[in-house]
Amino acid sequence: MERLLLCVLALCLGPSRAQLCPTRCMCQNLSPSLAVLCARTGLLFVPPSIDRRTVELRLTDNFIAAVRRRDFANMTRLAHLTLSRNAIRQLVPYAFAGLRGLRALHLDGNRLLALSGQQLRGLPNLRHLILSNNQLRDIAPGAFDDFAGTLEDLDVSYNNLAWLPWETIRRLGNVNSLGLDHNLIAHVPQGVFANLHKLARLDMTSNRLKKIPPDPLFLRRPVYAKARGSPLSSLVLGFGGNPLHCNCELLWLRRLAREDDLETCASPPALLGKSFWSVPEEEFACEPPVITHHTGRLVVMEGQVATLRCQGAGDPEPAVHWVSPEGKVVANGSRMLAYENGSLQILVATVKDAGAFACVASNAAGDATASVELLVHPLPQLADGTRPPAPAASGPSDILTSAKAGAHESAAPQDRGVLVSALSASSALIRWFPQRSVPGVRMYQIQYNSSSDDTLVYRMIPPSNKAFLVKDLAAGRAYDLCVLAVSADGPTALPATRSLGCVRFRTWPGSPPCHARHAHFLGGTMIVGIGGLIVASILLFILLLTSRCKAHDGHRMAKVRHGCSQTNGGQPPACRAPDGAEDSTGDLTGVALSKDGEKGLGHPWPRGGHEGDALSQEEDVVKD
């Protein structure tokens, strides 16, 4: 009986075990591990029938385009996953979450464009990550966070990476092989490999590196250019195929123990195309920096934007920094900005900023210093009703804020370079006289504000104009106006502005003539006139209709009266008009006959006439 039960169980389990292996795949049940091999089987997606107890899964050389989260769900025993040479373009977030036992992940030869911070989450024990031969252009800073402490092999070669998450690279303490070759990397931060004590191979060939900074790791351990014949404790460094700039910054690399390779120099011009290892060490030289252009003296008004310029040259190209008059290095802040081209911009100049700034250009060969004097004139204070002349700015500036109006304003020009004429309640004609010290003027800029508004209004004027009519001004209000010339700074080709002068004026009081109101009044008058004519025409028409109706009613009354007189040849009492109304009735009948009778009787009937005459007249009316 027991043997029979065992046979039944074997028969039941046998087919189910066979169904766990996907179609066209090969399953190897090598106890205690299970390997599923599905290479070159034409798969379009990850088979859902894979045994969840699989330890090694190979899906190479297929057509899988996406990896979903359910594809590897509950596969906690999986240790090796190979998805090489597919068409994977999409990795959903947490696609490998739950694979806590995974040690090797091969994603090379796919079409990945970028890695976000969530696509590789859930792999705390990953040792080998191969991402070569993709189309990667960006790797998020947190993409490798889950396995940064366990990763031993990282390969991102043959991609389109111009930048790497260097802060994550610094934390790969267990990595021994790092492949960065055949990318677009142009800069490697100094000291980024300092904590990679187990690093044995670093490949940076075929990138865009002009220099490789000396790293503390390179100085602590012997470095070789090839792995052949190098000691096990050494670091093998590959850097060929880069446009190396052979100067003193690469002298440490020239002194490495190596076998002859094909690395060549791309610059300076004297060493172009020469073998890196054949150039004598004394030719790896640098040129000390020289300051080629800088602002000598700059005068601005308080509140202006002050721009200090400084440029240097040398080999390598020097970096420029600024030292304030107090002896402190100027850093970027809310009010001061230092640019990579050597310029220093003070957004709002104050009197405390005045002094001698130092421009320092530095490179590996030394330093060069130049002094730039900044003068900041305070804004005028109007205490006695007069305004002192504003100092003329002798240096470039980007904006000039005019002073606010005080207790009394004068319409007279405050600067001989700018005049106001044709002043009215809403406009002012501004004239200016260009200075010979402002060459190459591209345009003029007018800026003004009123005594009750801090907002500056700007107007750009062509360089051929020497006057401008400012419109839409408020009546009886004081204005501060400045004229600036915008020109090109020859050495730097940057736009610079120079003040031609400022002026304060007040518009005439009262409202200017309003043409719109006049036109509105005329239009209203015309509308009223036309409406009156229409109303008068309607009233006249109504009066005509009323008179017509009255005439028609009189004619009918006349017929009724004559009917009564025709019955007995006289006028019985029942047909007589009321007392006092007989004359009017007779008159009305006479008028009706004079208008409607064919014989044209134009006079009323006589009250005392003969009955025969009345009868003959009545007969005529009835016939009509």
Fold blueprint:
Layout: H1 2-19, E1 26-30, E2 33-37, E3 56-58, E4 66-67, E5 80-82, E6 90-91, E7 104-106, E8 114-115, E9 128-130, E10 138-139, E11 153-155, H2 166-170, E12 177-179, E13 201-203, H3 216-220, E14 223-224, E15 235-238, E16 244-245, H4 251-254, E17 265-267, E18 287-294, E19 297-301, E20 306-308, E21 310-315, E22 319-323, E23 336-338, E24 344-346, E25 355-363, E26 366-377, E27 418-421, E28 428-432, E29 441-450, E30 457-461, E31 467-470, E32 478-489, E33 494-506, H5 515-568, H6 582-596, H7 611-623
Helix pairs in contact: 5-6, 5-7
Main sheet strand line-up: 1-2-3-5-7-9-11-12-13-15-14
Sheet with the most strands, sense and barrel status: 11 strands, mixed
By helix and strand content, what is the structural category? alpha/beta
Q: Helix count?
A: 7
Poorly predicted parts: 1-19, 382-415, 512-521, 557-624
Cα-to-Cα separation, first versus last residue? 142 Å
Strand content: 25-35%
Query: What is the number of E strands?
Result: 33
Helicity range: 10-25%
**What is the arithmetic mean of pLDDT?**
76
Radius of gyration: 52 Å
Shape estimate: flat
